[in-house]
Amino acid sequence: MKLFLDTANVSYIREINDLGVICGVTTNPSLIAKEGRDFKEVVTEITSIVDGPISAEVIDMKAEGMVAEAKELVKIHKNIVIKIPMCAEGLKAAAALTKMGIKTNVTLIFSAAQALLAARAGATFVSPFVGRLDDVGAHGIELIEEIATIFNIHGIETEIIAASIRKPEDVTACAMAGAHIATVPYETMKKCIDHPLTTQGIERFLKDWETVPKK
Ligand code: E4P
User: How many domains does the chain have?
Assistant: First the structure.
């Protein structure tokens, strides 16, 4: 399973990209709004940091408008992926963009049927939201398993981006469930790095090293 960073904060993106663990970034209108900066300016900066798929979301709710927005966004960089909300107009837009050779990420997926339809419309990626399902008492990981099973059985090439990740355990559970990618928020990525026994181990090694006779 590959890892993307789920943020529009360029400082976070630079820091995590330097670790060599991510190969893409996802943004959404809420993440962009947090930055208080121009949308295209932020996305352009992200493309200069990470050499991989960068999801930028359209906001028009009509297929025609989504396609028009997408055509503008892909002018920014070859790595731009058009993020489209799951709905009838979104499917129509995904199908049209696929025919034009433009990559899409159909987002806000909460059922396997939605994922199947998005894949059949030609989506490059689908984004099932694990955490938001867990929040309402459902099981996000089960959705990842279902989609992975369906895509495997039917030889569907659309990649599953497990989204709405809240904790390190979600990351590993998504990997076990068959997600191709997990898009991980900065704070969760940092938590994945640390472990109290690692910190303790480093401290012990350094302390013991002080007792080694030096010539
Ligand atoms: C990414 O593609 C999604 O927009 C994001 O993971 C949603 O996360 P949230 O449910 O924490 O807002």
Answer: 1
pTM: 0.96
- Quick check: 191 and 13 in contact, CB under 8 A? no
Catalytic residue flag (residue 83): yes
What CATH code is carried by the domain that includes residue 112? 3.20.20.70
Q: Which of 83, 92, 99, 167 is catalytic?
A: 83
DSSP string, 61-92: SSHHHHHHHHHHHTTT-TTEEEEEESSHHHHH
With beta carbons less than 8 A apart as the criterion, state whether 64 and 74 touch.
no
Predicted-complex ipTM score: 0.98
The protein residue with its alpha carbon nearest to ligand 1, atom 12, reads 164
Residue span of the structural domain in which 128 resides: 2-211
Q: List the pLDDT tens digit at each of the 215 positions of the chain.
A: 999 999 999 999 999 999 999 999 999 999 999 999 999 999 999 999 999 999 999 999 999 999 999 999 999 999 999 999 999 999 999 999 999 999 999 999 999 999 999 999 999 999 999 999 999 999 999 999 999 999 999 999 999 999 999 999 999 999 999 999 999 999 999 999 999 999 999 999 999 999 999 98
Q: For a substitution probing ligand 1, which of 132, 133, 164 has the most ligand atoms within 8 Å of its CB? A: 164
Q: 163 C-alpha vs ligand 1 centroid, how far in Å?
A: 5
Taking the C-alpha atoms of residue 39 and residue 47, their distance in angstroms, rounded to an integer, is 13
